[in-house]
Amino acid sequence: MTHVHIIGGGLAGLSAAVDVIGRARVSVYEAGPACGGRARSYYDKALDARIDNGNHLLLSANKASFRYLGLIGAEKTLKGPGAPLFPWFDLSTNLGWTLQLSRGRFPFWAFSGRRRVPGMKLSELAVLARLLKAGPDQTVSEFLGKGMLTRRLLEPFTISALNTPLETGSAALLATIIRETLALGGAACCPWYPSEGLSESFVDPAVAHLRRLQGEVHCGTRISGLDVQDGRVTGLKSGNEIIAVGPEDRVVFAAPSPVARTLLEPHLPGFSAPDAYESIINVHYRLPSPVHARGMLAKVGFVGLVGGVAEWVYLKGAILSVTVSAANRYAARDNDELIATIWSEIRQAVGPVLIETLPKAVPPVRLVCEKRATFAATPAQDRLRPQARTGLDNLALAGDWTQTGFPSTIEGAIRSGSEAIRVLGLL
Q1: CA–CA distance from 145 to each of 31, 123, 138 (Å)?
Q2: Is the overall model pTM greater than 0.90, yes or no?
Q3: Nearest CA to 16 among 272, 390, 399?
């Protein structure tokens, strides 16, 4: 039986493994102590709680992600309102509202004062049509206007989707997201997120599924080099060991971009990969007991913020979890000051709709900064992304940094794993 060796146990590698298990012998090699990469959960001793290293929101249009969850039997581990509902709060005006998209393609929501972005004008919708025609060298800031639709929806949506500032972010990558979500109508935009945690939804069920089907998952196993002969990979170096790659075997390289540049450049003339990155900050506040919200926040479980440091606040039992995208811009700020500022934003936006009273003092907290959370989604970096197919007969690439057409997202990572298996002729 063909043996597929998968280097990297993040979502791209797990996706590749899940797609090919049953048709081939599978071995996954993950350098870290657990699989999941930048989408995993772990126990934090200081908070005495299990937390995610980042918050991720899926939309109902993310077909590859839902297919993957179905294959590993985890489709019921997500929760959401079951409708295209998005609560928002503008910190500068102390105004809260809920964006309620129409399920069909025609934007009926934009004609309703109760459902649309407050203060927006219908003419602003033309921004979306212009964005869909964006060229590969254009940035988002060339398209966005000055109206309330831009300020209260498109700007925070863009920063979250691209994890890159508007001034440098790729308009073409944003257009891909819009084409597969907003342009398809609200039915494609229903939000979903893990009921428990990222690992409980995306990682642990996948590893269990692979092992049930006799797949091998080796954590703490770093692949430090490749043996290449006659245009194909013949061995993988791990410490003092050489893992043989047989004549019928295949290799999926699904490790992060910096590792790819180190290991693959000697074997692939002209190889390129993104080399500039953006960070994401996640701040987790631990309360003495679980919090419960009223109204729309109770139904949806999260709220988007406008005009502050944080972009999203998630209610997770006794944890209030906050995401700050494109966080390189805050690199010079003191962590304690950031934590205090974000806590004040939470109290302003979320406090009034909680049944419990939030304390003025900052509760126990953990700030997690993923310094290389994503590649910088700029036109220049997008041009550096390689295709899945390589110049070596039995090697394919996977990862959200490969040319998926998407920015660095869970959906892009999962699609890339499937694409790698396809180009190897196994799907």
Answers
A1: 45, 11, 15
A2: yes
A3: 399
**Could you give the angle at the alpha carbon of 21 between the alpha carbons of 417 and 74, nearest 5°?**
75
- Phi, psi angles (nearest 5°) of residue 278: -120, 145
* Beta carbons within 8 Å of 162's beta carbon, 6+ residues apart: 140, 169, 170, 173, 174, 326, 377, 407
Specify the 3-state DSSP secondary structure of 87.
strand
Cα-Cα-Cα-Cα dihedral sign, residues 163, 169, 173, 175: positive
User: Distance between CA atoms of 330 and 280, rounded to whole angstroms?
Assistant: 10
d(CA 80, CA 73): 18
The tens place of each residue's pLDDT in the chain, 427 residues long, gives 899 999 999 999 999 999 999 999 999 999 999 999 989 999 999 999 999 988 999 999 999 999 999 999 999 999 999 999 999 999 999 999 999 999 999 999 999 999 999 999 999 999 999 999 999 999 999 999 899 999 999 999 999 999 999 999 999 999 999 999 999 999 999 999 999 999 999 999 999 999 999 999 999 999 999 999 999 999 999 999 999 999 999 999 999 999 999 999 999 999 999 999 999 999 999 999 999 999 999 999 999 999 999 999 999 999 999 999 999 999 999 999 999 999 999 999 999 999 999 999 999 999 999 999 999 999 999 999 999 999 999 999 999 999 999 999 999 999 999 999 999 999 8
Residue 403 vs residues 125, 202, 262, 408: alpha-carbon distances, Å: 29, 22, 19, 10
The CA distance from 246 to 48, in Å, is 46
